[in-house]
Design a protein that fits this description.
Blueprint: E1 3-8, H1 12-23, E2 28-31, E3 43-46, E4 50-53, H2 67-70, E5 80-82, E6 87-90, E7 96-99, H3 103-111, H4 115-139, H5 145-153, H6 161-170, H7 175-182, H8 186-196, H9 210-213, E8 224-226, H10 232-243, E9 247-249, E10 254-260, E11 263-269, E12 274-282, H11 286-293, H12 300-307, E13 317-323, H13 336-339, E14 343-346, H14 350-361, E15 370-374, E16 389-396, H15 408-426, E17 434-440, H16 442-449, E18 485-487, H17 501-516
Parallel strand pairs: 1-2, 1-12, 2-9, 6-14, 12-18
Antiparallel strand pairs: 3-4, 5-8, 6-7, 10-11, 11-12, 13-16, 13-17, 14-15, 15-16
Helix pairs in contact: 1-10, 1-17, 3-4, 4-5, 7-8, 8-14
Protein backbone atom coordinates (compact mmCIF):
# COMPACT_ATOMS: atom_id res chain seq x y z
CA UNK A 1 0.00 0.00 0.00
CA UNK A 2 1.24 3.50 -0.86
CA UNK A 3 -0.51 5.04 2.15
CA UNK A 4 -2.22 4.17 5.36
CA UNK A 5 -4.88 6.80 4.72
CA UNK A 6 -6.11 8.35 1.47
CA UNK A 7 -8.45 11.35 1.78
CA UNK A 8 -10.54 12.45 -1.20
CA UNK A 9 -11.13 16.21 -1.03
CA UNK A 10 -9.46 18.97 0.97
CA UNK A 11 -12.43 20.57 2.71
CA UNK A 12 -11.87 21.38 6.36
CA UNK A 13 -13.45 18.12 7.57
CA UNK A 14 -11.24 16.02 5.32
CA UNK A 15 -8.17 17.97 6.35
CA UNK A 16 -9.11 17.70 10.04
CA UNK A 17 -9.34 13.91 9.76
CA UNK A 18 -6.08 13.79 7.82
CA UNK A 19 -4.26 16.04 10.29
CA UNK A 20 -5.19 13.92 13.30
CA UNK A 21 -4.23 10.70 11.54
CA UNK A 22 -0.93 12.18 10.34
CA UNK A 23 -0.19 13.39 13.88
CA UNK A 24 -0.87 9.87 15.16
CA UNK A 25 1.83 8.57 12.83
CA UNK A 26 -0.09 7.26 9.83
CA UNK A 27 1.03 7.85 6.25
CA UNK A 28 -1.56 10.23 4.82
CA UNK A 29 -2.26 11.62 1.35
CA UNK A 30 -5.01 14.14 0.53
CA UNK A 31 -6.18 14.55 -3.08
CA UNK A 32 -7.91 17.80 -4.16
CA UNK A 33 -9.53 18.30 -7.58
CA UNK A 34 -9.07 22.10 -7.64
CA UNK A 35 -5.86 24.08 -7.86
CA UNK A 36 -6.51 25.58 -4.41
CA UNK A 37 -6.64 23.72 -1.11
CA UNK A 38 -9.52 24.14 1.31
CA UNK A 39 -12.76 23.09 -0.34
CA UNK A 40 -15.55 25.37 0.89
CA UNK A 41 -13.28 27.00 3.48
CA UNK A 42 -11.02 28.81 1.06
CA UNK A 43 -9.90 32.38 0.39
CA UNK A 44 -8.81 33.58 -3.05
CA UNK A 45 -7.18 36.77 -4.39
CA UNK A 46 -9.49 38.81 -6.63
CA UNK A 47 -9.90 42.25 -8.18
CA UNK A 48 -6.31 43.39 -7.65
CA UNK A 49 -5.45 42.83 -4.00
CA UNK A 50 -8.73 41.77 -2.37
CA UNK A 51 -8.88 38.50 -0.43
CA UNK A 52 -12.37 37.06 -0.76
CA UNK A 53 -13.71 33.85 0.72
CA UNK A 54 -15.39 31.54 -1.77
CA UNK A 55 -17.25 29.45 0.83
CA UNK A 56 -17.80 29.57 4.57
CA UNK A 57 -16.72 32.80 6.27
CA UNK A 58 -17.86 33.03 9.90
CA UNK A 59 -16.23 30.59 12.34
CA UNK A 60 -18.79 29.95 15.07
CA UNK A 61 -18.56 26.22 15.73
CA UNK A 62 -14.94 25.11 15.63
CA UNK A 63 -14.19 26.98 18.88
CA UNK A 64 -16.38 24.43 20.69
CA UNK A 65 -14.00 21.63 19.69
CA UNK A 66 -10.41 20.81 20.71
CA UNK A 67 -9.22 20.84 17.08
CA UNK A 68 -7.27 24.11 17.01
CA UNK A 69 -5.47 23.32 20.27
CA UNK A 70 -4.91 19.60 19.63
CA UNK A 71 -3.29 20.23 16.27
CA UNK A 72 -1.40 23.37 17.35
CA UNK A 73 -2.79 25.28 14.39
CA UNK A 74 -1.58 28.64 15.74
CA UNK A 75 1.97 27.46 15.04
CA UNK A 76 0.99 27.05 11.37
CA UNK A 77 -0.14 30.65 10.92
CA UNK A 78 -3.75 30.51 12.16
CA UNK A 79 -4.62 33.63 14.16
CA UNK A 80 -8.20 34.25 15.21
CA UNK A 81 -9.65 37.74 15.65
CA UNK A 82 -12.67 37.79 18.02
CA UNK A 83 -15.99 39.04 16.66
CA UNK A 84 -17.54 41.25 19.34
CA UNK A 85 -20.36 42.00 19.03
CA UNK A 86 -20.68 38.79 17.06
CA UNK A 87 -23.87 40.00 15.40
CA UNK A 88 -26.14 43.02 15.24
CA UNK A 89 -29.60 43.51 13.79
CA UNK A 90 -30.05 47.12 12.60
CA UNK A 91 -33.52 48.38 11.73
CA UNK A 92 -34.82 51.04 9.40
CA UNK A 93 -36.02 53.26 12.24
CA UNK A 94 -32.42 53.61 13.49
CA UNK A 95 -32.76 51.16 16.39
CA UNK A 96 -30.66 48.03 16.69
CA UNK A 97 -29.94 45.06 18.91
CA UNK A 98 -26.40 43.71 19.35
CA UNK A 99 -25.22 40.38 20.75
CA UNK A 100 -21.89 40.49 22.57
CA UNK A 101 -19.76 37.73 23.99
CA UNK A 102 -20.52 39.08 27.44
CA UNK A 103 -24.06 38.05 28.38
CA UNK A 104 -24.67 40.96 30.76
CA UNK A 105 -23.62 43.45 28.12
CA UNK A 106 -25.93 41.78 25.63
CA UNK A 107 -28.87 42.01 28.02
CA UNK A 108 -28.13 45.67 28.69
CA UNK A 109 -28.20 46.25 24.94
CA UNK A 110 -31.51 44.41 24.53
CA UNK A 111 -33.03 46.40 27.40
CA UNK A 112 -32.73 49.57 25.30
CA UNK A 113 -35.49 48.27 23.06
CA UNK A 114 -37.39 46.05 25.49
CA UNK A 115 -36.71 45.35 29.18
CA UNK A 116 -38.92 42.26 29.22
CA UNK A 117 -36.91 40.74 26.38
CA UNK A 118 -33.62 41.50 28.14
CA UNK A 119 -34.78 39.48 31.16
CA UNK A 120 -36.24 36.79 28.89
CA UNK A 121 -32.95 36.50 26.99
CA UNK A 122 -30.96 36.06 30.21
CA UNK A 123 -33.35 33.31 31.34
CA UNK A 124 -33.27 31.72 27.87
CA UNK A 125 -29.47 31.46 28.00
CA UNK A 126 -29.55 30.13 31.57
CA UNK A 127 -32.02 27.37 30.69
CA UNK A 128 -30.60 26.29 27.35
CA UNK A 129 -26.86 26.54 28.01
CA UNK A 130 -26.46 23.35 30.11
CA UNK A 131 -28.44 21.33 27.58
CA UNK A 132 -26.36 22.63 24.71
CA UNK A 133 -23.09 22.04 26.49
CA UNK A 134 -24.18 18.39 26.56
CA UNK A 135 -25.29 18.53 22.92
CA UNK A 136 -21.89 19.85 21.85
CA UNK A 137 -20.25 17.10 23.89
CA UNK A 138 -22.33 14.61 21.91
CA UNK A 139 -21.34 16.31 18.66
CA UNK A 140 -17.77 15.13 19.33
CA UNK A 141 -18.81 11.47 19.55
CA UNK A 142 -20.34 8.95 17.21
CA UNK A 143 -24.14 9.29 17.61
CA UNK A 144 -24.82 5.86 19.10
CA UNK A 145 -27.75 5.26 21.44
CA UNK A 146 -25.24 4.60 24.21
CA UNK A 147 -23.51 7.94 23.68
CA UNK A 148 -26.82 9.78 23.39
CA UNK A 149 -28.04 8.17 26.60
CA UNK A 150 -24.89 8.93 28.56
CA UNK A 151 -24.53 12.46 27.24
CA UNK A 152 -28.12 13.68 27.15
CA UNK A 153 -30.70 11.41 28.74
CA UNK A 154 -28.85 10.85 32.01
CA UNK A 155 -28.00 14.51 32.57
CA UNK A 156 -30.04 16.71 34.86
CA UNK A 157 -31.27 19.86 33.18
CA UNK A 158 -33.30 22.46 35.02
CA UNK A 159 -34.03 23.10 38.66
CA UNK A 160 -36.38 20.14 39.04
CA UNK A 161 -38.04 17.39 37.04
CA UNK A 162 -40.88 19.60 35.78
CA UNK A 163 -38.41 22.22 34.60
CA UNK A 164 -36.37 19.52 32.82
CA UNK A 165 -39.46 18.01 31.22
CA UNK A 166 -40.61 21.44 30.05
CA UNK A 167 -37.25 22.05 28.41
CA UNK A 168 -37.35 18.66 26.70
CA UNK A 169 -40.91 19.37 25.54
CA UNK A 170 -39.76 22.65 24.05
CA UNK A 171 -37.25 20.78 21.90
CA UNK A 172 -40.15 19.53 19.80
CA UNK A 173 -41.34 23.05 18.99
CA UNK A 174 -40.39 25.02 15.92
CA UNK A 175 -37.80 27.67 16.67
CA UNK A 176 -40.24 30.27 15.34
CA UNK A 177 -42.74 29.30 18.01
CA UNK A 178 -40.05 29.19 20.69
CA UNK A 179 -38.96 32.72 19.77
CA UNK A 180 -42.52 34.05 19.71
CA UNK A 181 -43.31 32.44 23.07
CA UNK A 182 -40.14 33.83 24.67
CA UNK A 183 -39.81 37.36 23.32
CA UNK A 184 -42.36 40.12 22.71
CA UNK A 185 -40.53 42.73 20.65
CA UNK A 186 -40.79 42.14 16.91
CA UNK A 187 -37.18 43.24 16.45
CA UNK A 188 -35.87 40.54 18.78
CA UNK A 189 -38.08 37.97 17.13
CA UNK A 190 -36.89 38.93 13.64
CA UNK A 191 -33.20 38.95 14.60
CA UNK A 192 -33.25 35.56 16.30
CA UNK A 193 -35.49 33.93 13.69
CA UNK A 194 -33.16 35.01 10.90
CA UNK A 195 -30.19 33.79 12.91
CA UNK A 196 -31.85 30.41 13.50
CA UNK A 197 -32.56 30.09 9.79
CA UNK A 198 -28.83 29.95 9.03
CA UNK A 199 -28.82 26.19 9.65
CA UNK A 200 -31.40 25.65 6.92
CA UNK A 201 -34.83 24.73 8.31
CA UNK A 202 -37.39 27.57 8.23
CA UNK A 203 -38.89 28.92 11.48
CA UNK A 204 -42.07 26.86 11.01
CA UNK A 205 -40.40 23.41 10.97
CA UNK A 206 -41.42 21.19 13.89
CA UNK A 207 -38.73 20.00 16.33
CA UNK A 208 -36.33 22.71 15.15
CA UNK A 209 -36.08 24.64 18.46
CA UNK A 210 -32.49 23.52 18.93
CA UNK A 211 -31.44 25.64 15.94
CA UNK A 212 -31.95 28.69 18.13
CA UNK A 213 -31.27 26.88 21.41
CA UNK A 214 -27.63 26.23 20.47
CA UNK A 215 -27.18 30.00 20.35
CA UNK A 216 -26.93 29.81 24.15
CA UNK A 217 -23.35 28.48 24.09
CA UNK A 218 -21.98 31.29 21.92
CA UNK A 219 -21.56 33.45 25.01
CA UNK A 220 -19.12 30.83 26.38
CA UNK A 221 -17.00 30.37 23.24
CA UNK A 222 -17.63 33.33 21.00
CA UNK A 223 -17.02 33.30 17.25
CA UNK A 224 -13.85 34.57 15.66
CA UNK A 225 -12.42 35.23 12.25
CA UNK A 226 -9.02 34.02 10.91
CA UNK A 227 -6.70 36.88 10.07
CA UNK A 228 -6.09 36.75 6.32
CA UNK A 229 -9.38 35.07 5.45
CA UNK A 230 -11.45 32.01 6.28
CA UNK A 231 -9.08 29.85 4.25
CA UNK A 232 -6.29 30.35 6.75
CA UNK A 233 -7.87 27.52 8.74
CA UNK A 234 -7.49 25.01 5.92
CA UNK A 235 -4.02 26.32 5.05
CA UNK A 236 -2.97 25.68 8.66
CA UNK A 237 -4.48 22.20 8.58
CA UNK A 238 -2.61 21.42 5.34
CA UNK A 239 0.64 22.70 6.86
CA UNK A 240 0.07 20.50 9.91
CA UNK A 241 -0.41 17.43 7.70
CA UNK A 242 2.78 18.14 5.76
CA UNK A 243 4.70 18.80 8.97
CA UNK A 244 3.78 15.30 10.13
CA UNK A 245 4.93 13.67 6.90
CA UNK A 246 1.68 13.70 4.94
CA UNK A 247 0.91 14.98 1.45
CA UNK A 248 -1.77 17.42 0.30
CA UNK A 249 -1.91 17.40 -3.49
CA UNK A 250 -3.86 19.88 -5.62
CA UNK A 251 -5.16 19.31 -9.16
CA UNK A 252 -5.66 15.61 -8.48
CA UNK A 253 -9.31 15.06 -9.37
CA UNK A 254 -10.48 11.63 -8.27
CA UNK A 255 -12.72 9.93 -10.83
CA UNK A 256 -13.01 6.48 -9.29
CA UNK A 257 -12.68 4.83 -5.90
CA UNK A 258 -10.82 1.55 -6.34
CA UNK A 259 -12.50 -1.58 -4.97
CA UNK A 260 -10.89 -5.01 -4.61
CA UNK A 261 -12.47 -8.05 -2.96
CA UNK A 262 -15.31 -5.96 -1.59
CA UNK A 263 -13.06 -3.35 0.02
CA UNK A 264 -12.06 0.23 -0.88
CA UNK A 265 -8.31 0.18 -1.53
CA UNK A 266 -7.59 3.57 -3.11
CA UNK A 267 -8.53 5.98 -5.86
CA UNK A 268 -7.79 6.79 -9.49
CA UNK A 269 -7.43 10.35 -10.76
CA UNK A 270 -8.49 11.99 -14.01
CA UNK A 271 -4.84 11.83 -15.09
CA UNK A 272 -4.84 8.05 -14.64
CA UNK A 273 -2.73 7.95 -11.48
CA UNK A 274 -3.59 5.37 -8.85
CA UNK A 275 -3.18 5.87 -5.11
CA UNK A 276 -3.70 2.96 -2.75
CA UNK A 277 -4.29 2.91 1.00
CA UNK A 278 -5.44 0.79 3.92
CA UNK A 279 -8.32 3.17 4.54
CA UNK A 280 -10.06 5.64 2.24
CA UNK A 281 -11.87 8.71 3.61
CA UNK A 282 -14.20 10.64 1.34
CA UNK A 283 -14.61 14.32 2.10
CA UNK A 284 -16.84 14.58 -0.98
CA UNK A 285 -20.62 14.78 -0.84
CA UNK A 286 -22.27 11.41 -0.25
CA UNK A 287 -24.00 11.52 -3.66
CA UNK A 288 -20.72 12.34 -5.40
CA UNK A 289 -18.97 9.56 -3.50
CA UNK A 290 -21.47 6.78 -4.18
CA UNK A 291 -23.32 7.82 -7.33
CA UNK A 292 -20.25 9.03 -9.24
CA UNK A 293 -16.99 7.71 -7.76
CA UNK A 294 -18.54 4.32 -6.91
CA UNK A 295 -20.97 4.07 -9.81
CA UNK A 296 -19.24 0.81 -10.79
CA UNK A 297 -19.81 -0.75 -7.35
CA UNK A 298 -23.07 0.54 -5.85
CA UNK A 299 -25.98 -1.92 -5.69
CA UNK A 300 -29.48 -1.02 -6.92
CA UNK A 301 -30.78 -1.24 -3.34
CA UNK A 302 -28.18 1.21 -1.99
CA UNK A 303 -28.68 3.51 -4.98
CA UNK A 304 -32.39 3.60 -4.16
CA UNK A 305 -31.67 4.50 -0.52
CA UNK A 306 -29.28 7.22 -1.67
CA UNK A 307 -32.00 8.77 -3.80
CA UNK A 308 -34.18 9.18 -0.71
CA UNK A 309 -31.63 11.30 1.16
CA UNK A 310 -33.15 14.77 1.42
CA UNK A 311 -30.52 17.07 -0.04
CA UNK A 312 -32.98 19.89 -0.66
CA UNK A 313 -33.28 22.45 -3.41
CA UNK A 314 -30.50 24.92 -2.81
CA UNK A 315 -29.78 26.95 0.27
CA UNK A 316 -28.76 30.47 -0.64
CA UNK A 317 -26.53 32.71 -2.74
CA UNK A 318 -23.80 35.17 -1.87
CA UNK A 319 -22.16 38.23 -3.35
CA UNK A 320 -18.46 38.78 -2.57
CA UNK A 321 -17.77 42.46 -3.18
CA UNK A 322 -14.76 44.73 -3.37
CA UNK A 323 -15.77 48.10 -1.97
CA UNK A 324 -14.54 51.69 -1.79
CA UNK A 325 -15.95 51.91 1.73
CA UNK A 326 -17.96 49.98 4.29
CA UNK A 327 -21.72 50.33 4.89
CA UNK A 328 -22.86 53.21 7.06
CA UNK A 329 -25.94 52.05 8.89
CA UNK A 330 -28.69 54.44 9.86
CA UNK A 331 -28.27 54.11 13.66
CA UNK A 332 -29.43 56.27 16.52
CA UNK A 333 -28.46 53.96 19.38
CA UNK A 334 -25.17 52.29 18.37
CA UNK A 335 -21.77 52.95 16.84
CA UNK A 336 -21.43 52.01 13.18
CA UNK A 337 -17.82 50.92 13.77
CA UNK A 338 -18.99 48.57 16.51
CA UNK A 339 -21.74 47.06 14.39
CA UNK A 340 -19.30 46.33 11.55
CA UNK A 341 -17.16 44.09 13.79
CA UNK A 342 -19.65 41.23 13.54
CA UNK A 343 -22.36 39.88 11.27
CA UNK A 344 -25.22 42.20 10.40
CA UNK A 345 -28.67 40.59 10.32
CA UNK A 346 -30.88 42.42 7.83
CA UNK A 347 -34.40 41.18 8.39
CA UNK A 348 -36.98 43.71 9.63
CA UNK A 349 -39.77 41.36 10.74
CA UNK A 350 -40.70 37.70 11.10
CA UNK A 351 -43.27 38.14 8.33
CA UNK A 352 -40.52 39.43 6.04
CA UNK A 353 -38.59 36.19 6.62
CA UNK A 354 -41.68 34.04 6.09
CA UNK A 355 -42.40 35.83 2.82
CA UNK A 356 -38.85 35.20 1.62
CA UNK A 357 -39.26 31.49 2.35
CA UNK A 358 -42.63 31.43 0.58
CA UNK A 359 -40.96 32.74 -2.59
CA UNK A 360 -38.40 29.91 -2.32
CA UNK A 361 -41.17 27.32 -2.06
CA UNK A 362 -42.60 28.68 -5.32
CA UNK A 363 -39.26 28.00 -7.00
CA UNK A 364 -38.40 31.69 -7.13
CA UNK A 365 -35.61 33.80 -5.60
CA UNK A 366 -36.83 35.89 -2.67
CA UNK A 367 -38.35 39.14 -3.90
CA UNK A 368 -37.27 40.82 -0.66
CA UNK A 369 -34.40 38.69 0.61
CA UNK A 370 -33.28 38.53 4.20
CA UNK A 371 -29.53 39.16 4.21
CA UNK A 372 -26.50 38.53 6.41
CA UNK A 373 -23.89 41.21 5.70
CA UNK A 374 -20.27 40.47 6.59
CA UNK A 375 -17.66 43.22 6.79
CA UNK A 376 -14.52 41.43 7.92
CA UNK A 377 -12.11 44.04 6.54
CA UNK A 378 -13.37 46.27 9.36
CA UNK A 379 -11.33 44.13 11.78
CA UNK A 380 -8.74 42.72 9.36
CA UNK A 381 -7.03 45.23 7.04
CA UNK A 382 -5.05 42.43 5.33
CA UNK A 383 -8.15 41.60 3.27
CA UNK A 384 -8.13 44.68 1.03
CA UNK A 385 -5.80 47.36 -0.36
CA UNK A 386 -5.34 50.52 1.70
CA UNK A 387 -8.60 52.48 2.16
CA UNK A 388 -10.61 49.69 0.47
CA UNK A 389 -12.86 47.05 1.97
CA UNK A 390 -14.69 43.77 1.46
CA UNK A 391 -18.41 43.12 1.82
CA UNK A 392 -20.17 39.76 1.66
CA UNK A 393 -23.96 39.54 1.30
CA UNK A 394 -25.47 36.14 2.03
CA UNK A 395 -29.12 35.70 1.14
CA UNK A 396 -31.74 33.03 1.68
CA UNK A 397 -33.81 31.58 0.18
CA UNK A 398 -32.57 30.76 -3.34
CA UNK A 399 -33.62 27.51 -5.08
CA UNK A 400 -31.10 25.61 -7.15
CA UNK A 401 -33.87 24.39 -9.44
CA UNK A 402 -36.03 27.33 -10.48
CA UNK A 403 -39.62 27.11 -11.58
CA UNK A 404 -40.34 26.91 -15.28
CA UNK A 405 -39.53 30.08 -17.16
CA UNK A 406 -36.65 31.19 -14.94
CA UNK A 407 -32.97 30.62 -15.59
CA UNK A 408 -30.07 31.54 -13.31
CA UNK A 409 -27.85 32.64 -16.20
CA UNK A 410 -30.40 35.34 -17.08
CA UNK A 411 -31.30 36.55 -13.59
CA UNK A 412 -27.93 36.38 -11.82
CA UNK A 413 -27.13 40.10 -12.10
CA UNK A 414 -30.63 41.17 -11.10
CA UNK A 415 -30.54 38.97 -7.99
CA UNK A 416 -27.16 40.37 -6.96
CA UNK A 417 -28.59 43.86 -7.37
CA UNK A 418 -31.55 42.84 -5.23
CA UNK A 419 -29.19 41.86 -2.39
CA UNK A 420 -27.57 45.29 -2.57
CA UNK A 421 -31.00 46.87 -2.61
CA UNK A 422 -31.70 45.18 0.73
CA UNK A 423 -28.59 46.53 2.44
CA UNK A 424 -29.29 49.97 0.98
CA UNK A 425 -32.54 49.97 3.00
CA UNK A 426 -30.53 49.82 6.22
CA UNK A 427 -27.30 51.50 5.12
CA UNK A 428 -28.24 53.97 2.35
CA UNK A 429 -25.75 54.38 -0.47
CA UNK A 430 -23.82 51.15 0.14
CA UNK A 431 -24.23 49.99 -3.46
CA UNK A 432 -22.65 53.24 -4.69
CA UNK A 433 -19.32 52.11 -3.18
CA UNK A 434 -19.17 48.88 -5.22
CA UNK A 435 -15.92 48.33 -7.15
CA UNK A 436 -16.49 44.77 -8.39
CA UNK A 437 -18.17 41.59 -7.26
CA UNK A 438 -18.05 37.80 -7.51
CA UNK A 439 -21.59 36.41 -7.55
CA UNK A 440 -22.14 32.87 -6.28
CA UNK A 441 -25.60 31.76 -7.35
CA UNK A 442 -26.67 28.19 -6.51
CA UNK A 443 -25.30 26.83 -9.83
CA UNK A 444 -21.96 28.57 -9.18
CA UNK A 445 -21.81 27.11 -5.66
CA UNK A 446 -22.66 23.67 -7.01
CA UNK A 447 -19.92 23.83 -9.64
CA UNK A 448 -17.27 25.46 -7.45
CA UNK A 449 -17.60 23.08 -4.53
CA UNK A 450 -19.10 20.00 -6.23
CA UNK A 451 -22.13 20.25 -3.92
CA UNK A 452 -25.27 18.66 -5.35
CA UNK A 453 -28.20 21.09 -5.36
CA UNK A 454 -25.84 23.75 -3.92
CA UNK A 455 -26.70 22.74 -0.36
CA UNK A 456 -23.79 23.94 1.77
CA UNK A 457 -24.94 21.60 4.56
CA UNK A 458 -24.68 18.70 2.03
CA UNK A 459 -27.83 17.11 3.52
CA UNK A 460 -30.79 19.01 4.98
CA UNK A 461 -30.50 19.56 8.74
CA UNK A 462 -33.93 18.17 9.61
CA UNK A 463 -34.77 15.89 12.53
CA UNK A 464 -34.97 12.66 10.52
CA UNK A 465 -31.47 13.36 9.16
CA UNK A 466 -29.71 14.23 12.41
CA UNK A 467 -27.74 12.24 14.99
CA UNK A 468 -27.94 8.47 14.33
CA UNK A 469 -30.01 9.09 11.18
CA UNK A 470 -27.47 11.34 9.42
CA UNK A 471 -27.41 10.91 6.47
CA UNK A 472 -28.70 7.32 6.71
CA UNK A 473 -28.49 5.05 9.76
CA UNK A 474 -25.87 2.76 8.21
CA UNK A 475 -23.53 5.74 7.68
CA UNK A 476 -23.96 7.42 11.05
CA UNK A 477 -20.70 6.08 12.55
CA UNK A 478 -18.62 7.38 9.61
CA UNK A 479 -18.07 3.93 8.13
CA UNK A 480 -19.99 2.85 5.03
CA UNK A 481 -21.44 -0.32 3.50
CA UNK A 482 -18.16 -0.56 1.55
CA UNK A 483 -15.46 -1.91 3.85
CA UNK A 484 -12.46 0.35 4.21
CA UNK A 485 -14.35 3.49 3.13
CA UNK A 486 -15.20 6.23 5.62
CA UNK A 487 -16.96 9.60 5.29
CA UNK A 488 -15.90 12.99 6.70
CA UNK A 489 -18.11 15.78 5.40
CA UNK A 490 -21.00 18.08 6.32
CA UNK A 491 -23.48 15.32 5.47
CA UNK A 492 -22.31 13.34 8.48
CA UNK A 493 -23.09 13.85 12.18
CA UNK A 494 -23.29 16.51 13.55
CA UNK A 495 -23.72 18.44 10.29
CA UNK A 496 -22.53 21.52 8.43
CA UNK A 497 -20.88 24.80 9.28
CA UNK A 498 -17.20 25.47 9.92
CA UNK A 499 -17.09 22.94 12.71
CA UNK A 500 -14.60 20.15 11.95
CA UNK A 501 -16.52 17.71 14.15
CA UNK A 502 -17.33 15.23 11.33
CA UNK A 503 -13.62 15.09 10.47
CA UNK A 504 -12.62 14.84 14.13
CA UNK A 505 -15.04 11.98 14.79
CA UNK A 506 -14.17 10.18 11.56
CA UNK A 507 -10.46 10.26 12.40
CA UNK A 508 -11.12 8.57 15.73
CA UNK A 509 -13.29 5.89 14.09
CA UNK A 510 -10.63 5.19 11.45
CA UNK A 511 -7.94 4.97 14.12
CA UNK A 512 -10.02 2.43 16.06
CA UNK A 513 -10.52 0.36 12.91
CA UNK A 514 -6.79 0.25 12.26
CA UNK A 515 -5.99 -0.69 15.84
CA UNK A 516 -8.37 -3.65 15.66
CA UNK A 517 -6.10 -5.22 13.08
CA UNK A 518 -3.47 -5.83 15.74
CA UNK A 519 -5.81 -7.19 18.44
Amino acid sequence: MDNDILVIGSGHNGLTAAAYLAKWGYRVTVLERRSTIGGAVCTEDMFGGFKLDVGGSAHFMIHHTPIVKDLGLESYGLEYIPLDPFMTAPFEDGSSVSFFRDLDRTCENIARINEHDADAYYEFIRRWQPLNEAVFELFLKAPTMRNIGRTLLLRKFGRDRSDRNDLLRTLFQSYGRLINDTFEDERMRAALAWWGAQSGPPPIDAASAEFIGWHSVIHKNGPARPRGGSGMLTQALAACIRDHGGQVLAEQEVTRILVENGRAVGAQTAAGERYTARRVISNAHIWVTFLELLDHWISPALRSRMSRIHVGNGFGMVVRAAMDRLPEYNLNDASNDEVLRGLQLLCPTRQYLDDAYADYLRGEPSKDPAVVAMTFSAIDPTLAPADKHTLFLWGQYYPYRLREGLDWSRIERDEATRLFRTIDRFAPGTSDALIDMYVQTPPVIREKHNMPNANVMHVEMVLDQMFMFRPLPEFSRYGTPLKGLYMANAGMHPGGGIFGAPGYNCAHEVRRSLRRIFI
